[in-house]
Design goal:
Length: about 290
């Protein structure tokens, strides 16, 4: 497809397990953004209140639409369900219905990785490609897939959740209930758990990255393990969908040197499973741009 000019208007929300970011966008310009930590008590009503509060703090009257890119499953009716229940809890929220009733305006609600894939496919590095994969590596592992210029979707919203498929490098149980997933070994929360097992308590993925750049052996091992696992996920995406390009996003995916580590490990796979891997050009704006399409 041809690269489009982003000229959409609306309130765009990127809701993750660690933070929520809400932007007022007018004719493609990000006029105001509010970012805060996601509520940590795993109570569904608190998430709704947090979303509504931040929408109210922006000028909804100037916006024709509300777009919410959110971690987890979103079914065909706009109901939201977390997949990793350790991160956000276990519930079903009729999010689309609640938001449209509250603000009396149209809304789009989709998985955050799918939204970011749409953003990159239309406005970023993916516009030249018919088959695109987007992997966000942050608190969890999210995957969005574009096939023949259309997002991979399903009625119950599970399609594309390849972070919950199994890695040959993983053995522990993840919050989805599955054993040995990519999310359980490559995500930011997984990094912190592995660091704790090595005797380093209460340390974030961001801090682990800093220490790895200072050549701390244990920190480098954790980062290398994550990158090796993600390279395996890239090869899987190539095998399943014959993907043309994979774009890495998220705080870890865009961290210094991470893409290079993934590419280095991907070269160890048979050549048939090699795929072009690049860092997101849209960064934290990708999902917000994609959800307003």
């Amino acid at each position: 497809m041809n690269k489009k000019i982003f000229n959409k208007s609306g309130i765009a929300i990127d809701f993750g397990a660690t933070k929520i970011s809400v932007s007022q966008i007018i004719k493609g310009k990000f006029k105001k953004t509010i970012t805060e930590p996601t509520s940590i008590n795993k109570i569904a009503n608190n998430y709704i209140q947090q979303i509504e509060k931040n929408i109210k703090n922006l000028n909804i009257s100037k916006s024709k639409k509300i777009g919410i890119a959110i971690t987890g499953r979103v079914d065909q009716y706009g109901n939201w369900y977390p997949v990793n229940k350790e991160n956000l809890g276990n519930f079903k929220i009729p999010l689309k219905k609640l938001i449209e009733k509250k603000f009396n305006t149209a809304s789009t609600i989709i998985n955050d990785a799918t939204a970011a894939a749409l953003g990159e496919a239309n406005y970023g590095k993916g516009y030249k490609y018919k088959r695109l994969g987007y992997i966000t590596i942050s608190s969890g592992i999210g995957v969005g897939v574009i096939l023949n210029n259309k997002p991979l979707l399903s009625e119950n919203g599970l399609a594309g959740h390849l972070g919950f498929t199994t890695s040959t490098l993983a053995k522990t149980k993840c919050g989805s209930g599955r054993i040995g997933t990519f999310e359980s070994i490559a995500s930011g929360k997984a990094m912190s758990k592995i660091a704790k097992q090595k005797g380093h308590k209460n340390i974030s993925a961001k801090e682990i990255f800093k220490l790895s750049l200072q050549n701390k052996k244990w920190a480098k091992e954790i980062i290398d393990l994550s990158a090796k696992s993600v390279s395996e996920l890239c090869a899987n995406l190539k095998a399943i969908f014959d993907i043309d390009i994979i774009i890495l996003g998220g705080s870890i995916g865009m961290a210094q040197g991470y893409v290079e580590l993934v590419k280095k490990n991907l070269k160890k796979e048979p050549k048939l499973f090699h795929v072009k891997v690049v860092k997101s050009s849209l960064g934290v704006k990708a999902a917000k741009m994609g959800v307003l399409l």
